[in-house]
Amino acid sequence: MLYTGTSRLSSEIAGDVIQQIGKKESVLKRMQAMVNDAVEILNSERDICEFGGLLNQSWLLKRQLSSRISNDTIDKIYSIAMKNGAIGGKLLGAGASGFMVFFAPPENHHDIKEALHGYLHVPFRFETQGSTLIHYSSEAA
């Protein structure tokens, strides 16, 4: 996961998506159908790299929802990651900025991080207990 170094008002992008939603029904239906595919991959013995391929497909579909979801910076980051071994990825949130996450075989992680060295790498791990809020207070320290 990396931080793109930019921010935006998500409500503006979401508003644009909502205005065009009637014209994008087929895209939304294809995205919804991918959910079952993802669950099947994750709950089976299938190659987990297929999940990365779904991420790539979903990103290409999400970009069709609004011209504001991506921009030159996001496209550049995505392209660099893919050229360096990512199988797929996505921009988290409404679009246009924020955090991106990529799916890649472990042996490609170093190359992707090196190629995107100008962006903040944010380590994370999957949690089986659901979301966890970590709160730090300088008063408690």
Quick summary of this structure?
This protein has 141 residues and is α+β, with helices and mostly antiparallel strands. The protein is built from 5 helices and 4 strands. Helices cover 47% and strands 9% of the residues.
- The secondary structure category is alpha+beta
The main sheet comes to: 4 strands, antiparallel
Strands, total number: 4
Beta percentage is 5-15%
Order of helices and strands: EHHHHEEHE
Range of helix content: 40-55%
Q: Termini, distance in Å?
A: 29 Å
Question: What does this protein structure show overall?
Answer:
- This protein is of the alpha+beta class and 141 residues long.
- It has five helices and four strands.
- It has a four-stranded antiparallel beta sheet.
- β2 and β3 form a beta hairpin.
- α2 packs antiparallel against α3.
- The chain is globular and about 45 Å long.
- It starts with a strand and ends in a 20-residue tail after the last strand.
- The model has no long low-confidence stretch (mean pLDDT 85).
